Amino acid sequence: MIIDILKAFLIGICASAPVGPIAILVIQISLSKGHKAGFVTGLGACLVDTVFSIIAIFALALAQRIIEEHRVVILLAGGLIVTVVGWRMAVSNPFRKVKAGPETRSISLKDFFQALAMGFSNPGAIFVIFALFAFFGLGNSSPHDWKVAPIIIAVSAGAAFYWFCITALLDHFRKRFRLQTILWVNRITGAIIVIIGLALIGEGLFKIIFQRMPVL
């Protein structure tokens, strides 16, 4: 069991490590608002990984079939959510309410729910979890076996540990940035997220237009 818990902890870290829209969001929040705000945002991603881990360990085959059957809808809806979040990041000024002092460290649940929405709308994230569980040889066929609870907790702890370390590191370097530099980081990261969202929408539209056309 100890070995399985360590494997699950590594799964949580590995699932959080890829650079995607959530990671870019966490970077933006950490640089503009500080460690605590960035970590809270990362906890949104952590919750997504936890839910996906529960699905992976109890209903891997069923979840894969559902995702494949509704992949186009997931791509379009997810792409729209990611695009909107990216656009708001690109055009917003996180320092507009700051009247004095060089920093703002406000914590907002909106950041947490943004990460949550982006995570659940990304079909690639759950496949990463599936692949990691398969690679480390973790799985369970009985939905009533609660012995896997420590494994789920370990995945969540691994993800939380990763985001805590990353946001602390970003906050350390944040002190070397000027407000104008951080503002441009917000705009650039927002633009990158918009591109990712549009790519998801484009993939969904491609599947609708070309893969569902009748063969003449």
Low-pLDDT segments? 97-103
The value of Rg in angstroms is 19 Å
Shape: flat
Mean pLDDT: 76
Tell me the series of helices and strands, N- to C-terminal.
HHHHHHHH
Helical stretch count? 8
Percent of residues in β-strands: under 5%
The biggest sheet, with number of strands, parallel, antiparallel or mixed sense and barrel status, is:
none
Counted beta strands: 0
The helix-and-strand class reads mainly alpha
Percentage of helical residues? Answer: over 70%
Termini Cα gap: 57 Å
Transmembrane segments: 6-27, 39-60, 72-91, 112-136, 148-170, 191-210
GO molecular function, one term: amino acid transmembrane transporter activity
Membrane topology: Multi-pass membrane protein
Pfam families: LysE
Give the SSE map.
Layout: H1 2-16, H2 21-33, H3 35-69, H4 71-91, H5 109-120, H6 123-136, H7 149-174, H8 179-209
Helix pairs in contact: 1-6, 1-7, 2-3, 2-5, 2-7, 2-8, 3-5, 3-6, 3-7, 4-5, 4-8
Membrane topology: Multi-pass membrane protein
GO molecular function: amino acid transmembrane transporter activity
Subcellular location: Cell membrane
Description:
With 216 residues, the protein is mainly alpha-helical. The protein has 8 helices and no strands. It has helices spanning 2-16, 21-33, 35-69, 71-91, 109-120, 123-136, 149-174, 179-209. Mean pLDDT is 76; it is low at 97-103.
Question: What would a concise description of this structure say?
Answer:
This is LysE family transporter. This protein has 216 residues and is mainly α. Helices cover 77% and strands 0% of the residues.
